Structures are given as structure tokens and as C-alpha cells.
């Protein structure tokens, strides 16, 4: 079942600019997580936000969660060429570890 | 370097072959996962093991057979696969999937890229 939709599908920016990615989902969630995937590699966990939280920060990352709109956003500030990757949101609907991933946003940061 | 190790990195097999994918973690995690990922698509959950017991099977065809010999190891046995099974197979682990009310990040390996001839 498709739970998460992400937009944009692709984003191209210059180094130093900010990048914003959005995720929408359909059902109530336990938490929402963001992952990064570099080409040919596994996924790297970035940040987890629980359903009772509205905003979290981690370094250059800022995640917001609006459960009334069933949406989340990931902001990467002062982007670097090394941030070039695919970014996925994933929702955990209930405890048990089952994650449902969104379609992903492909971010390209040009030096 | 990832803390979840998957072997082999690449595997080419015929439709009549039997092979196994292996996954190992030494973080003391008690939940382990198998995902399938096609090119340009998100990962799709296949199986979840919690405390060495199969807790979730996402209606995966029986030609895929998971096994969890101990808390550090996870195998995926493959038999009579089809060309559409060609994909990146990702293993992941988390501290726990139930007792901590979920809310655990998952740690992924770099995957095994499987090609079925």
C-alpha cells in the first residue's frame, strides 16, 4: 500500500542554497522518519519525529510534522555537493517496525 | 562504513539456482528486516524478525525463505527466482520493534544487488 507521497520528485540547487522536501501520508502514524540514500548504497537514517512532536533539528536538518494535514517537510540548510542523494520519508503506522516509504526526492546539489 | 554487513555485494544467478543472502549486525539489535528495492523506487518491506521470530511476512512468494539463526544473523534463501526478482535486497536492524513502542530508527546495510538470468 502506498502511504507516502513526496514532492518534488527531483530538485536541483546550487551549493549554499536551502533544499526543502515535502512528504504527505494517508493514515495515523506512530512516527515519521527521513532517510538518505546515496547512489548504490544503503539507506542512512537522518531523523525520527514522533506523532506528538511538531519540529526537530539535527545539525543542518530541520523536520516539521503536521498531523492535522498528514504532512512533513525536511529542510536542508546551506546545502553541499555531498548532500546529493535520494531522500525518503517513511512512516511507522504502529509499533512493530513496519516502515512504509514514500517515493523519494532526488536532490542534486551543484558545486 | 555501515554497521550492518551484507554479503555478497553482487549476485548473478539462473532461475533454477539456489543461493542465500547473508546479513550480520553486532549492535545488539533484536529486530532485523529484509527489504526489496527496484531501481528508482522506494524500499518495500518483505520480512521482519523480532527476537529471532518471524513477526511480519508481507505476503512474499515462497521462493524467498528467510531464516534468523541467532540475534546477529539474518539469511534470505533464494530458490527458483524469476527475472522480475532482480533488485537490490537490503537488510536492516533496529534496537527493538515492539517493546520500545516502536520509534526506533533502522540501520541499513549496503545491500546485495541480485540479477536473475
Walk me through the structure.
The complex is a heterodimer of chains A (111) and B (117). Chain A is an all-beta fold and 111 residues long. Chain A is built from no helices and eleven strands. The radius of gyration of chain A is 13 Å and the shape is globular. By secondary structure, chain B is mainly β. In chain B, strands 2, 4, 5, 6, 9, 10 and 11 form a seven-stranded mixed β-sheet that branches. A four-stranded antiparallel β-sheet of chain B has the order 1-3-8-7, with no helix packed on it. Chain B starts with a strand and ends with a strand.
How is the topology of this model organized?
The complex is a heterodimer of chains A (111) and B (117).
Chain A (H helix, E strand, L loop, with lengths): L4 E3 L2 E5 L4 E6 L6 E7 L5 E8 L4 E4 L2 E6 L4 E6 L8 E8 L6 E3 L3 E6 L1
Parallel strand pairs in A: 2-11
Antiparallel strand pairs in A: 1-3, 3-8, 4-5, 4-9, 6-7, 7-8, 9-10, 9-11
Chain B lengths: L3 E4 L2 E4 L4 E8 L5 E7 L6 E7 L2 E5 L6 E7 L2 E7 L7 E8 L12 E2 L3 E5 L1
Mean pLDDT of chain A: 94
Report the sheet with the most strands of chain B, covering strand number, pairing sense and barrel closure: 7 strands, mixed
Q: Helix fraction of chain A? A: under 10%
The sequence of SSEs of chain A as H and E is EEEEEEEEEEE
Radius of gyration of chain A (CA) equals 13 Å
Shape designation of chain B? globular
**Which percent range describes the beta-strand content of chain A?**
over 45%
Q: Structural class of the helix and strand makeup of chain A?
A: mainly beta
The strand count of chain A comes to: 11
Number of helices of chain B: 0
Output mean pLDDT of chain B. Answer: 93
Oligomeric state of this protein: heterodimer
Amino acid at each position: 500500500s502506498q502511504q507516502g507521497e513526496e514532492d518534488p520528485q527531483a530538485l536541483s540547487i546550487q551549493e549554499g542554497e536551502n533544499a526543502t522536501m515535502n512528504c504527505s501520508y494517508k493514515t495515523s502514524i506512530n512516527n515519521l522518519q527521513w532517510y538518505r540514500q546515496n547512489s548504490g548504497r544503503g539507506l542512512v537514517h537522518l531523523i525520527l519525529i514522533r506523532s506528538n512532536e511538531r519540529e526537530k533539528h539535527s545539525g543542518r536538518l530541520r523536520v516539521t510534522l503536521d498531523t492535522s494535514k498528514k504532512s512533513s517537510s525536511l529542510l536542508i540548510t546551506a546545502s553541499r555537493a555531498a548532500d546529493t542523494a535520494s531522500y525518503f520519508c517513511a512512516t511507522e503506522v504502529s509499533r512493530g517496525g513496519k516502515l512504509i516509504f514514500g517515493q523519494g526526492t532526488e536532490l542534486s546539489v551543484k558545486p | 562504513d555501515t554497521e550492518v554487513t551484507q554479503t555478497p555485494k553482487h549476485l548473478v544467478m539462473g532461475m533454477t539456482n539456489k543461493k542465500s543472502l547473508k546479513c550480520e549486525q553486532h549492535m545488539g539489535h533484536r529486530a532485523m528486516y529484509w527489504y526489496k528495492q527496484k531501481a528508482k523506487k522506494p524500499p518495500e518491506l518483505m520480512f521482519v524478525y523480532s527476537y529471532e521470530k518471524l513477526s511480519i511476512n508481507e505476503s512474499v512468494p515462497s521462493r524467498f525463505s528467510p531464516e534468523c539463526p541467532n540475534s546477529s544473523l539474518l539469511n534470505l534463501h533464494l530458490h527458483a527466482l524469476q527475472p522480475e526478482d532482480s533488485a537490490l535486497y537490503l537488510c536492516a536492524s533496529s534496537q527493538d520493534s515492539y517493546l520500545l513502542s516502536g520509534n526506533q530508527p533502522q540501520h541499513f546495510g549496503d545491500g546485495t544487488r541480485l540479477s536473475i538470468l
